[in-house]
Specification:
The chain has 292 residues and is an all-alpha fold. The protein has 12 helices and no strands. It has a single domain (78-290), classed as MetI-like (MetI-like fold, Orthogonal Bundle), CATH 1.10.3720.
Length: 292
């Protein structure tokens, strides 16, 4: 007796139903996710998507208006603005993702230790985080970048360090409530070590607020990187950066060549807008209090 096995495509009806449910329930979140996916794909395939070389200069095309060759115009050195925006997505998203991952990871570890260990360790660390939170993100990033020098690695570090206190305090507040749960007491009764309880049982239950917080901070890190580059403390030349593109043209060419300011500003606004929409949708989806 032969059995015929039918293989469906990778997209099953249930998956499609779930997708359309998300579209109906969180339309703005889906829109934000689409925006972020577009920028991520543009950054990954920048070498294939960009119409021209972002580093190639052409004196004859200096400050060229948008046309069929330079779709978004050219800058003062004759470089294609569109190509530099596409390649600039690599720098901006790399800094944003790197700073968010490092800041969230270290902050989650610190918050877990403070909330679970408590005592004098929690007291000392909380006073340090309060001092760090007293300074705005941009101010602290400026101080650290000025001390370390402008580079991609230093920019990521400078933005990641100010993120640690916020993440640590959020995770700590969750751990303080989770460590009193019955399953933690049951794990202690079985003789499980405190470190294993914290890592295996407590930490996974803090992932939902951690994901929401990291997504919400992604937009602020992009703005901070653009601000540092605008002030000349971000990623140095010749690498294209959205903030540096604004700083090079905002003061001198805002009237004669407004496309040098409009398009980088629109790109920064769009990616920050998309990350905020995605973060709000994740908060509503992962927070039981927000569910209908």
């Amino acid at each position: 007796m032969s059995t015929t096995v039918s293989i469906d495509g990778p997209i099953t009806p249930s998956a499609m139903n779930n997708f359309w449910y998300l579209v109906r329930r969180y339309p703005l979140g889906v829109a934000g996710a689409i925006i972020m996916i577009m920028f991520v794909l543009a950054a990954i395939f920048a070498d294939y998507v960009a119409p021209l070389d972002p580093f190639s200069t052409n004196a004859r095309a200096s400050l060229a208006r948008p046309n069929d060759v330079y779709l978004m115009g050219a800058d003062m050195m004759g470089r294609d603005v569109l190509s530099r925006l596409i390649h600039g997505a690599r720098i901006s998203l790399a800094v944003a993702l790197g700073a968010t991952i490092i800041g969230s990871g270290v902050g989650a570890a610190v918050g877990l230790a403070c909330g679970y260990i408590g005592g004098w360790f929690d007291l000392i660390v909380q006073r340090i985080t309060e001092v760090m939170q007293a300074l705005p993100l941009l101010v602290m990033a400026l101080v650290i970048t000025a001390s370390l020098g402008p580079s991609l690695r230093n920019t990521i570090i400078a933005i990641a360090i100010p993120l640690i206190p916020t993440v640590a305090r959020v995770i700590r507040s969750n751990v303080l409530s989770l460590r009193e749960m019955p399953y933690v007491e049951a794990a202690k009764a079985t003789g499980m070590s405190e470190f294993r309880i914290a890592v295996v049982h407590v930490m996974p239950n803090t992932l939902a607020p951690l994901i929401v917080l990291a997504t919400a901070q992604l937009g602020s890190t992009i703005l901070t990187e653009a601000s540092l580059s605008f002030l000349g403390l971000g990623v140095p030349e010749p690498y294209p950066s959205w903030g540096r593109m604004l700083s090079e043209s905002a003061a001198e060419y805002v009237r004669t060549a407004p496309w040098l300011v409009i398009f980088p500003g629109l790109v920064i606004s769009l990616v920050v807008f998309g990350s905020n929409l995605l973060g709000d949708a994740l908060r509503d989806a992962l927070d039981p209090r927000q569910r209908g």
